Amino acid sequence: MPPCPTFGALILALGCTQVACRRTPDKGEPPPPVPTQSACELPRSATMNALPPEVPARAAGHCVDPRIDVRSYGVGAKAPLDSVCTELFNGECELYKTYGLEGVTTLEYAPAVGTEHAVSAVVSEFRTGQGAFGFLTRRILAGGPPAGLTVQPLQLSGQGALGSGVAYIRRGRHVVELTYVSSTQTPEEVDAQSKHVLPELARNIALTLGGDETIPTVARRIALPGVPEFGLDLPPDGLFGLIGTGPYAVAHLSEPAPHRLIGVECADEASAKDTLRLLSTAGGFRKLKGSEVVTLRVASDDRAPEQWYLLRQGRLIVGVGPALGQDAPVLHGKEREHADAVWADFATRRVWAAMRHAATLGP
């Protein structure tokens, strides 16, 4: 027969039972958090010396985490630019180089209060502000139309976009990509918290980046009223699939009818003539009788033929074509003739309006 418990043991057992009753699941009280030290309270490491001057060490309640190495690649850095291709950008690095990528810095921001998240930052520096803007539009549009984008405009010094867990900043020759990271939060919590944390951090970083805040002139030339916030693209080359056209701007518009505008800004009039001759090799090319406007019928393997209307004046070339992904209905006879005439009338009037707008920014 086991020995009877002592009075003290009974009291201890009763006390434990009472405590357990007070912590019943009905109350749903979580255990008290374990106090932790913010990384911002730790001494700055030697890697902080590699922080570029245009990147703030502290911003919007965050600091550059001294426990994480600040790594730099490319111009002025110990590591060559090709190293970032294998460590970070993978197979897309050559695409980024076409925009004039010169250097990349990676770092991580930690919150001054709490430890439930971090914000990784990739700072890319380009040879020109035009290249940086083109890279930003590529990251947002990925070569497609703006319809269906999940990011929203982010108002800051320069251009910005905010998505689920990510934010993009472009100012001057720099593009910064911020990514909200948490190993303890659900995807829904990450989405909600990132939209609370990233905007102010992005605005603070944009202020220190410096450089031009406006979009490049070649893009502004075709930014007619009605262009959506993310309706401009600035590829580095390859208009109509031709290598050697140089940078060009694309505007996606839905009014007064879905269409695209293109703009090319050449060094001089002779270069513009050469570029137009190059473009004429992309398909069926002819000049409209009694007009400076030319038509170009472009066909490719992955989409229906497109009828473009182009106009050159001085060193500028503008063009009007169908909206991306807008497949024309299959028509025959008089129906096709009528549709072609309607499109020709619209595109001709629109290309002249685009050229007048382009010329307001100078020849």
Spell out the key features of this protein.
363 residues, alpha+beta, Protein Transport Mog1p, Chain A, 2 domains, nine-stranded antiparallel β-sheet, seven-stranded antiparallel β-sheet, 8 helices, 16 strands, disordered N terminus
What are the low-pLDDT stretches, counting only 5+ consecutive residues below 50?
A: 1-26
Helix content: 25-40%
Q: What is the molecular shape?
A: elongated
Please indicate the count of domains: 2
Number of helices: 8
Mean pLDDT: 86
Cα distance spanning the termini:
107 Å
Instruction: Estimate the strand proportion.
Output: 25-35%
Overall SS class: alpha+beta
How do the helices and strands follow one another from N- to C-terminus? HEEEHHEEHEEEEHHEEEHEEEEH
Radius of gyration: 29 Å
Give the beta-strand count: 16
Biggest β-sheet, characterized?
A: 9 strands, antiparallel
Describe the model.
- There is one protein chain.
- By secondary structure, the protein is α+β, with helices and mostly antiparallel strands.
- The protein folds into two domains: 39-209, no CATH class; 217-359, Protein Transport Mog1p, Chain A (3-Layer(aba) Sandwich), CATH 3.40.1000.
- The chain has helices spanning 7-22, 81-89, 93-97, 129-141, 187-209, 217-220, 269-279, 333-359; strands at residues 58-59, 62-64, 71-74, 101-111, 118-126, 152-153, 159-162, 166-171, 174-181, 232-233, 249-253, 259-265, 283-287, 294-300, 303-313, 316-322.
- The strands form two sheets. Strands 1, 2, 3, 4, 5, 6, 7, 8 and 9 form a nine-stranded antiparallel β-sheet that branches. Strands 10-11-12-16-15-14-13 form a seven-stranded antiparallel β-sheet, with helices on both faces.
- Strand 11 and strand 12 form a beta hairpin.
- The chain is elongated, with a radius of gyration of 29 Å.
